[in-house]
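Researcher: Here's the sequence for the chain we discussed earlier.
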Amino acid sequence: MKFFDEAKIEVIAGDGGNGAASFRREKFIPFGGPDGGDGGRGGSIWAIADRNLNTLIDFRYTRVFRAEKGENGRGADCYGKGGGDMELRMPVGTVISDHSTGELIADLDHDGKRTLIAKGGQGGLGNLHFKSSTNRAPRKCTPGTPGDHLELKLELKVLADVGLLGLPNAGKSTFIRAVSSAKPKVADYPFTTLHPNLGVVRVNHERSFVIADIPGLIEGAAEGAGLGHRFLKHLQRTGLLLHLVDIAPFDPACNPAKDAKAILKELRQYDENLFKKPRWLVINKIDLVPVEEREARVKALVKSYKPQRHFVIAAVSGEGCRDVTFAVMDHIEQQRRHHEISDSAG
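Model: Thanks. This is the structure I predict for it:
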C-alpha cells in the first residue's frame, strides 16, 4: 500500500431539525392547545485513533463526509429523530487542523482517542415551549441550527522513539534492516527510501523501541529540495535522533564533516525544537576505510561535529549496531522514568 501522510477533507455535520407549530385538534377537545414537537439534533462527526491503520490513503479518495440531519418535529408532541453520528477512523499520530486558519483541532496521539471535529446542529423548539398564561395559542417555533462545516487538513506524524537522520545513501535503511525486522528497500543510488519506514528493535523479550527511517536530506531541504523535507515532521515526535554519516563516500571530494553540518543547518531551519532534540552521531561504513586510517578519520569527524555521543558501525555487517541499540534502549528507559517521576510530582 502506498504511504500517504497528508490529506484534505471536508466535514459537514448534520443540521438540526425544525421545531413544529401545531395544535391539538380532536373531537370534543376544540381548544387542545399547542402540541408541536422539537426538531432532532443533527449528527456530529468524530475522529478516532486506530492503531490498525498506518496511512491516510482512505481520505485521498473520499474527501467529503456528511452526517445525517435531524428530523423536523411534528404535531401530537412528536419530537424529531436525531441524526446519526459519523466516526472517521484515522492512524494513531494524525494531527487535525483547520485548513484555512491552521488552528489545531485534535491530536490523535494514542490508540482509541475519540475527538469531536464537527458538531451537529441543535434541534429547533416546537410551539409547545412558548405557551403561557397570557399566550395560550402560540404560533411561534424555531428552526434548527446548522451543523459545523469545515475544511480540515490531516497530517500523519508517525510515532517512534528514535528517528534516523542523514544524507541519501548514508546507510539508514541498511541500519534499520540490521537492528529490526523491517525490510526497507536498499540500493546503491540516492533516494532509495521514498517514504518513512518503521521498525521495532527488540533488545530482549521485554525491552523494545520503535525506530523511524525517513528519506535522506540534502542541502536546501528546508526550502523544498529533495524528498526529506516532506517527512521531517515524522521526526518531531521522536525522543532521540541518530545522525548517520557515511565516513567513506563514493566521491573522494565529499567531506563527511561538512555534509553533516549542512544537514544540521537544514534541520535548524526547518524546526528549532527538532534541532534541539537529543542527537547522537553514528559513523557508518567504517569497514570501507583502511584500518590504518580509521582512528584518524573518526577523531576528525567527532572533533568537527562535537556530538553528545558517537558510535562507529558497519551497518551492512552489523558491526557495532548492538552497542547502539543497547545505548538507545537505556536512554529511552531513563527518559521514561524521568517522565513518570515528573508526572507523579505534578
